[in-house]
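Bench log. Compound arrived from synthesis this morning; before running ITC I wanted a structural hypothesis for how magnesium ion sits in the protein. Inputs:
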Amino acid sequence: MKNIRNFCIIAHIDHGKSTLADRLLEKTNTLNQREMQSQVLDDMDLEREKGITIKSHAIQMEYTARDGQQYTLNLIDTPGHVDFSYEVSRAIASCEGALLVVDATQGIQAQTISNLYLAVGHDLEIIPVLNKIDMDAAMIDEVKDQVIDLIGCKDEDILLASGKTGLGVEEVLEAIVHRIPGPEGDENAPLQALIFDSVFNPFRGIIAYYRVFNGTLRKGDHVKFFNTGSQYDADEIGVLKLKMQPRQEIKAGDVGYICSGIKTSADVKVGDTITSVTNPAKEAIAGFEDVKPMVFAGLYPVEADQYEDLRASLEKLQLNDASLTFEPESSLALGFGFRCGFLGLLHMEIIQERLYREFDMDVITTVPNVSYRITTTQGDVVEVHNPSGLPEVTKIDKIEEPYIQAQIITKSEFLGNVIKLCIDKRGVMKNQTFLTQDRVEVNFDMPLSEIVFDFYDKLKSISKGYASFDYHRTGFQPSKLVKLDILLNGEPVDALSSLTYTDHAYDFGRKMCEKLKELIPRQQFDIAIQAAIGAKIIARETVKAVRKDVTAKCYGGDISRKRKLLEKQKKGKKRMRQIGNVEVPQSAFLAVLKMD
Ligand code: GDP
Ligand code: MG
């Protein structure tokens, strides 16, 4: 087998993963100067702006080591956000080693740890790298101690580097070659290749990225995907440099791509195994999961006649994002739209933004919610993705909601605040571990719905930014939940209904009314805002009438200025909805997200 090394980089967000990856590409001449552009691995505009790697990619480098031998290094990039943790786990499963990049000015953070656990769980060789050592604020000794405590390595195993200046980057390459074991596997065995990512290309269909564990994939082979059962011809296979480079075969141990004119992402699932139709492997590579959306929200076109366009746009987005789901729904308040399922709130934001940028679709998004599992008095079990789809109260025997285990790392001085916040959010503390004298890790069982909204922002503010957070799902648990409705001038607005924890319902209803009062602009009549549980009104606010002539202050005959003002007002109205006789802005539908 060739000298191959397969590795990934695990790091907390902003610790310098992409910057270091760029330096590796540069030092191995994978990029020439002209191609060198900062952070090439984050190639989606949106990613670059949000500063996160949304989809994982892979890139192959050739490196001539100091021992004179040539090595092929496959860097498998991993997404950096909890919403995409399943993809991270498949990328890690495709590697033999990992660079553990820790920002020397920040130290170990929650995502460093959760991804590290994944890597250790897959027996990866861990190479710790302290990054950003060019900065004055680097706390080299302190962070080294944290790393030693965490992974039990020796002081001299820790590399010091700066992705910015390039310092120590060659040592990183040498460590990849000498510390990470080469891949094992039998190139003559039946084919087993693990898909760790896929992308949609408008001209070529789905392109899947995989790591071959056993066997050899040859151009033209008839292949099948174990879990989805779909079959294709390997029209083109190859390796990924900066561009796709076609090859005749990809052997055990290596990483590559396949294009087969596959039309839909539903056929190519991350975690699935590619094998040959004529000589199939006996079993798939373990660990396949069909990822399910965790968060749901209604998406409605601002202009009702854009419903079909919205459907077409969502279908296109789904081609390259199998984790997005949608089904038609209608709302009395908002008309026809779609109930969409997302992996998490960030994923939802990304979809909303892509609809806007790539498809010019302006949408109104309703309050997101988790999925609820309802057992009816008849004994049927149904999953409900929309509070307004709940059966009648008298027909509900049990409501369950998804729970997570939260992992938070903070400084000891903020521990009290963190615990209080988690308990307010219905958390139950599981354990608490001091990582060093003033850094502590706490674990809580919590309902997912409590962290879907503003948990992360609150955590940041109560800890002055010194808390990091990660979570994983643990399953459904029964909860005491009630449906809370909002009425505007006596009309219930279904898009504002929510399920809330019974003991918090009064407080929640009151805050919701207060927030809506702020968000709904005054109109020419009074607007009553009420919160209700069933027929019982539990809170009320009033938006007082106002008579406002916006052009009044443009005295004199400046027509063009007047027109501009009216134009501006029209634009501002775009994301408004008429409900009964009340105009409701988009922000009101997300009021829950802004409450404290
Ligand atoms: P990622 O989220 O882990 O991919 O982090 P990035 O590579 O995007 O880096 C986050 C920020 O840290 C960017 O502003 C980088 O310019 C900066 N950065 C990354 N590495 C270094 C380094 O070694 N030294 C300094 N001073 N800044 C760095
Ligand atoms: Mg990055």
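What the model suggests: The first helix runs from residue 17 to 27. The radius of gyration is 27 Å.
ITC booked for Thursday regardless.
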